[in-house]
Specification:
Elements (H helix, E strand, L loop, with lengths): L1 E8 L3 H19 L2 E10 L2 E4 L6 H11 L9 H7 L4 E4 L11 H10 L3 E4 L2 H17 L4 E2 L10 H8 L5 E7 L2 H13 L3 H10 L8 H4 L2 H15 L9 E2 L7 H9 L2 E10 L2 E10 L10 E8 L4 E7 L3 H18 L1
Parallel strand pairs: 1-2, 1-4, 4-5, 5-6, 8-10
Antiparallel strand pairs: 2-3, 7-9, 7-11, 9-10, 11-12
Helix pairs in contact: 1-12, 3-4, 4-5, 5-10, 7-8
This protein binds L-homoserine (HSE).
The site of L-homoserine has 11 residues, from helix 7.
């Protein structure tokens, strides 16, 4: 049995999803020879540490009842540096101004000899190559499947399943909130403010929903894709971005009458990075509805491969994080 020790840094929707998925899968994973032990959890108010493995069910209950997991006063950085462990799961909220606290947490993890798994877009949209280099310099694995497309295994698909192919271009819908807004406005003729509120109630919108509707969240994800797949060193500021705020119900209706839908499309290829609303034929593979995300990858050998799925959500995002944790468990 291989014991893999990890800490969850950030215990919001994603961190709790990771804890729930480990509770759900613990026995099945043991049968595969992997014993996942969470030895530290930190949220913004404090932490819990247990070298033998935290009781995740009671940590989740405490979080629900008290709004925090705190039992001890150590900071996230103390947990990252001082506990003996293999992996840091960095799932603090995205900050695209300076990437903090995620950037410092990930750097501290690599400097302390821990592999990193993250869903945190900010540090990768700002400093992707620095983080990758820091992981490589320390001989560690850096996995970030959950940063783009939530549950959709885009990086796994490109780096593993499509290994050997040259990737020519990528296009897709990488933001569930705007896709939900455009779908509901077109199909139900509901006003923008109403459907934005619905998206917020679904828990998929960013804390500041301008990041969604102005296309910034899509730009961050596109940059992470481009840096990882094309080896670029772009930041989200290099993306040519137009959001969805100027799209009127009349424009959506006109598109619909002509069998088109309007979608916020991200495109990367030939060094060009763009996010902008496009008219897409109603039956086109990119015309997925609701909160779905989709990525279409153009390759030289395999041709075009298109995958779609849930781009947000606590347990869906945890699916990608768990897959990254297991990759490290099997390959380190
Ligand atoms: N606000 C994001 C979205 C959440 O709507 O897709 C997932 O990154």
């Amino acid at each position: 049995m291989k014991t893999v020790k990890l800490s969850i840094i950030g215990f919001g929707a994603v961190g709790q999803g990771v804890a729930r998925s480990i509770v759900l899968k613990k026995e099945a994973l043991k049968k595969q020879g992997i014993d996942l032990r969470v030895v530290g959890i930190a949220d913004s108010k404090g932490c819990e540490v247990n070298a033998n493995g935290i009781d995740l069910k009671s940590a989740l209950l405490r979080k629900k009842e008290n709004g925090c997991v705190a039992k001890g006063a150590e900071s996230a950085i103390d947990i990252i540096r001082e506990i003996e462990q293999d992996i840091i799961v960095e799932v603090t909220p995205t900050n695209i101004e300076n990437g903090e606290p995620g950037l410092s947490n990930m750097t501290a993890a690599f400097e302390s000899g821990r592999h990193v798994v993250t869903s945190n877009k900010g540090p990768l949209a700002l400093c992707f190559s620095d983080l990758k280099e820091c992981a490589e310099d320390n001989g560690l694995i850096f996995r970030y499947e959950a940063t783009v497309g939530g549950a959709i295994p885009i990086f796994n698909l490109v780096h593993e399943a499509l290994a050997g192919n040259t990737i020519i271009g990528i296009e897709g819908i990488l933001n569930g909130t705007t896709n939900y807004i455009l779908t509901r406005m077109a199909e139900e003729r509901l006003p923008y403010e109403h459907v934005l509120r619905e998206a917020q109630e679904l828990g998929i919108a960013e804390t500041d929903p301008t990041y969604d509707v102005e296309g910034i969240d899509s730009a961050c994800k596109l940059v992470i894709l481009a840096n990882s797949i094309f080896g670029q060193s772009a930041t989200y500021r290099d993306v040519d971005v137009t959001g969805i705020t100027k799209i009127t119900p009349e424009a959506l209706e006109l598109a619909g009458r002509n069998n088109y839908v309007v979608k916020l499309i991200c495109e990367a290829g030939n060094g060009v990075l763009t996010v902008a609303p496009h008219l897409v034929p109603r039956r086109h593979p990119l015309a997925v509805g609701g909160t779905l995300n989709v990525a279409s990858i153009l390759t030289d050998l395999a041709g075009r491969i298109t995958i779609s799925g849930k781009g947000a959500g606590s347990i869906e995002t945890a699916s990608s994080i768990l897959s990254d944790i297991l990759y490290i468990a099997r390959n380190s």
